[in-house]
Write a structure and sequence with these properties.
The protein has a four-stranded antiparallel sheet with strand order 1-28-27-26, with no helix packed on it. It has a four-stranded antiparallel sheet with strand order 2-3-4-5, with no helix packed on it. The protein is an all-beta fold and about 350 residues long. It is built from one helix and 28 strands.
């Protein structure tokens, strides 16, 4: 485990968080952060029973999914260079990208942004128009993660461990290079949060994006992270087989709950928190209201349930296969129960 991080739930001094190494160095870039082998989803077995709900085909493996409430549309990134748009009513349509994308974030108002080398793609969901946006001076940067803050600022993360907070569509306001690799970004309000799998850490940046406020160890091998409508930050500890629930102001571990079967896919909703189990092709809905996660519903899924999305209006849970098995829609998911 990275020696510079305290166990989740204990705060780390801002100085240590800022340099992300053991001790406080005046030149942190000269000292590589301590790392471990990054965890990943389990390779799911073939399905043993019919998945719940309805399954629609998807070209290739699903890599990320976002539900946009303004257009009532599920957007799925598949095979890195293809977007498939699934409206609640109507025929799905495929939107090609001019290059591979690595991650996706939505603004909830009909637009989706996808990180790529040198910048990002912007999709207008309603008309399918895609625009490539190049970030100034970063033509060779491999962007691996993307999130949008409440103030509208985009935050990008890179393969070489830097976080970029943009001041405009193209201009970098702040670059902070203190991580091994930025594997995932999330935002609660104007606080950007960084998941580094090789350090199995979660770090909260200050609102300027220029320094790390706090950094915590995230289990034994964290893989995915998302923010939910209740102000929480959810992390799947795949190697440690657990769901980690953080508060973001300040960053603190509030709940840790065992979830067997290599948890990976995550989505937080106004009701339940959903976690997929990649070893068993299962998705489970937990109620966090009591302070201790309580399992409420469980469903069989498509093979390799790596990505989740949720429509709060209809109560539909979407499960996207990472092996090409399609997109599963479970209407009224919180109200039904399947074992």
């Amino acid at each position: 485990m990275p020696s510079h991080l305290k166990p989740a739930g204990q705060l780390v001094c801002a100085g240590i968080a800022a340099v992300m190494i053991a001790g406080c160095s005046s030149k942190p870039s000269q000292v590589p952060p301590p790392t471990i082998a990054a965890a990943q989803a389990a390779i799911s077995p073939p399905v043993s029973a019919s998945p719940a709900g309805v399954v629609q085909p998807l070209t290739g493996a699903g890599l990320a999914a976002v539900f946009d409430p303004a257009t009532a549309t599920l957007v799925v990134l598949g095979d890195r260079s293809v977007i498939t748009v699934f409206p609640v009513v109507g025929t799905p349509r495929v939107v090609p990208l001019s290059g591979p994308a690595t991650a996706m974030t939505g603004d909830g108002r009909g637009r989706v942004d996808l990180s790529t080398r040198g910048g990002y793609f912007r999709l207008d969901i309603a008309n399918g128009a895609v625009t490539r946006v190049d970030v100034d001076g970063e033509q060779t940067t491999d962007f691996t993660a993307i999130a949008r803050r409440a103030d509208g600022k985009l935050v990008l993360g890179s393969a070489d461990g830097a976080v970029y907070t943009l001041n405009s569509d193209t201009a970098v306001g702040v670059r902070l290079a203190i991580f091994h690799r930025v594997d995932s970004l999330a935002a609660q309000g104007n606080t950007a949060l960084v998941l580094d799998r090789a350090q199995t850490s979660v770090t909260a940046l200050d609102t300027s994006g220029s320094k790390a406020d706090l950094s915590l160890r995230a289990g034994e091998g964290a893989t995915t992270m998302t923010a939910d409508p209740a102000g929480r930050v959810l992390v799947a500890d795949t190697r440690g087989e657990g769901l980690l629930v953080f508060g973001s102001d300040p960053l603190i571990l509030r709940q840790r709950y065992p979830v067997r079967g290599a948890p990976y896919g995550l989505v937080g909703t106004l009701g339940l928190v959903w976690v997929s189990q990649t070893e068993t092709n299962t998705v489970v809905g937990y109620d966090l209201a009591t302070g201790i996660p309580v399992e409420k519903v469980r469903y069989r899924t498509v093979q390799q349930p790596n990505s989740l999305a949720f429509d709060d209006t209809s109560g539909t849970l979407y499960v996207v296969s990472g092996s090409g098995a399609g997109v599963q829609a479970i209407p009224g998911a919180a109200m039904r129960r399947q074992r």
